Amino acid sequence: MLRNEMPSLKIGDLEAQLPIVQGGMGVGISLSGLASAVADEGGIGVISTAGIGRVEPDFMQDLKAADIRGLQKEIRKAREMTKGLLGVNIMMALSDYDDMLRVSIEEKIDVIFIGAGLPLRLPTTITLDQFQNCGTKFAPIISSAKGANMILRTWDRYFNRIPDTFALEGPLAGGHLGFTMEELEDDSLTLESILDDVLKVVEPFEQKYGRKIPVIAAGGIYTGADIYRIMARGASGVKMGTRFVATHECDAHLNFKEAYVECTEEDIILIESPVGLPGRAIRSNLLVDVEHGEKRPFECPWRCLRTCDVVNAPYCIGKALNSAKMGDLEEGFAFAGANAYRVESIISVRELVSELSEEFAEACKLMGPLPSTSLN
Asked: pTM (2 decimals)?
C-alpha cells in the first residue's frame, strides 16, 4: 500500500480494494445498477431488499413471491455486470426477512447487512450449519455498543460464532435511525464516541475467536478527509449512502437525485416514521401535509413491515418511498443523510470514487499515514 492510498477492507477472507461500502437504500434506490458500479470501482456494492419486488406483476397479490423473484433477478443481474464484491441490505422489520436472508445465501451474496433490529435469533428458513458455514459474511447494523454486545454474546453462546463485521450507523445517517428523537437532538452523541465504545466491546471477542471484527462506520461520512478521520479513529472502513444517490448509476429517477442537488440544509428534517422509528429525510409536500395533521388514507394488502402501525399511520411509507423513487416527490419523499444539502451535482460513481481518493490522499499528506492500528 502506498503512503497516500486508501487501505483495503478485509472481512474474513474477503477483501475489497477500497474501504468503502455503498449504503443499501430502499425502496429501489440501490439495485443492481448502483451496486455493480460501486463494486467495479473496488468498493462493496449493496442491493437493498426493501420493496425489491414492486416491479413484479404479482406484487399486490403475493408480496413474498414477488420479493423473492425480484431479489434473485437483481443479484444475478449485478453478478453479470461486475466481478466485484456485492452485498444486500435486509431489514429485520420486513415481513419476509427470513426469506430474503435465505435467498441471499442461496445466491451466494458476499455480505448480508442486517438492519432495523438486532439479529438475536436464527432465521426459520436456514439451518444452524448454514449460518455457521456458508461463505456469505454477516454484518449486523448497529447504533450502539450495547447493541453490539448483545449480538456478540448471543451469537457466541447460541451459535458458536460471531459477526464477520459490524456496520455502525451514527446519528447523522439518512433513512430510519436506531436512536430516539431525543438522542438525535443531543449534540454530544457522535459517531466517533459510539465507535470508541464499540471497539472496546468487540476486542475481547476478537481475542477469543482469534480474528478481527472490522467495524464499518456510517452517518455523516461525506469526503475523503472524513474517511481518513474515522479510520484513524479505529474504523476499518466506511458505509456511504448519500453521496452515491447523486450518481448517474443510482437506480432512482432523476427527480429523486435532483432533490439532493436542490435541497438546503433547512430542508433536511427528522420525521416520525409509520414503522415506529425516527428517520431523516428531505422535506416534501407530503411530509409538510402530514406535519399539519393531514392523513392519506390507504389500504395495506400485504403488511410489508412488521412494525408498521397500519391503523394509525398517516400514510403508507412503502407507497411514498416508491413514488419518490419513480420521480413523484409530490406524493413521496426522499430519505437522506444530514449532509445531503452539500451535494452540488450528479456525477458518475467513478468520478465520486476518484474525488474521495484524492481527498483521502490530501488528508494523508497533512496528517500523516493512518496508524497501523487502523489497518486490517
From this structure: 0.94
